[in-house]
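User: Hand in any protein.

Assistant:
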Amino acid sequence: MKQTVKLVIAVLITLVLAAVLTTALEYVGHEWTLVSMRQVSNNMGDQIAIRNEMRMWTVAWWTTLVLGIALILLVWTAMYGKSLKGLFAVIFAAMLLTGCSTQYAVVITPPNYAIVIDMNAPTNQETGNSFGNGELVNLTQVRITTHRCAVNSNDQCPDKMVAQVQGAPESRIYTIDPNTGTSGANQALCFEAQGINGCVDFSVSAIIDRQDARCYANKMGVHPVIEEDGQASRYNFVATPLSEALDTRVIQIAGAEFARATSDRSPLSLATEKFGLFEAMKEEIVAAVHDKTCITLTDLSINGGIEWSSPGVQETIDQATIVQNRLELAKKENEVAAIQAAGMVARTKVYSDAFGLDAAIRMAAIEKWDGSYMLPYFPPAATMNPSSPLTETVPVQ
């Protein structure tokens, strides 16, 4: 009976000390988190002082843990003296139940974003790989504790899963020529116009906004970080790089949207209207990309001319352009001729009013008009005598 009472008292004291120890560890961990958050908000300030403070709280956490365990050992030693078989049994049972735990720290490098899934929450037990439902946190380090997934298993299960999403912007240039542009392949913006395929150089700048980080991770996917031993991490993940998303999904979406607007247009009209058409399509392309990938396009444009799949198409466009230029030139020449004719009529009328019709005709015949406009000339009244003969200084041709 006395042994039973002693065991109950020892267990009760142990539970109280364990509760106090847990509370103390949570407090120290909370202070460590606050310092980590301050490191994010003050990442341009004194990082050495902040890191020293984080180390201090890390030491405090381990000191509190060791002190708590020492107090529990002291209680059992005082109750049972040198007979600690019961204590060893309790410790062994606790190790079997909880497993050997190990702590890790995942470092988040600004401006990247961190998404954390708490695997202890019941709602996350079955959806641990969906970071779209995780918590977007302001941390530069996330502490992970792993323990045995089961009593008879050596696999380590983490209490949290962390995924990092790129926060830095990216710019890409896609060209038809594989020797130019960002990528070494033909990743230009391709489309179809009345059954004829064409491609044009395309440049784009993009960023993942903070509020879209979880959406991006969910739609574009994440993959585990490969650890030093070559194994895939069970708690540290990284989202698909933005550059990779631009090279695959974004260029595909932009091409599909642009092709939708060009399918009914002729190659000849696109040769001159491609820039205006693309400007009109910009907002639709930006909206479609954000809706399907959660990526924000900050700038996009097409560059240069269109390269058609068939060389004959470009030859036809060149011939049509030459004909169009000739028509434009003939139109301008006709306009000039009309202005010249109108000028000649006006000048002849001036001469006719001043010297008579016969003299006006002879003056028009001998004058070498350069096509410039000349104001009507009215000689002084004293010299205007229609009946006087016109003195010719240039022979009539």
Observations:
- Residues 1-98 form one domain.
- The radius of gyration is 43 Å.
- The chain is about 50% helix and 20% strand.
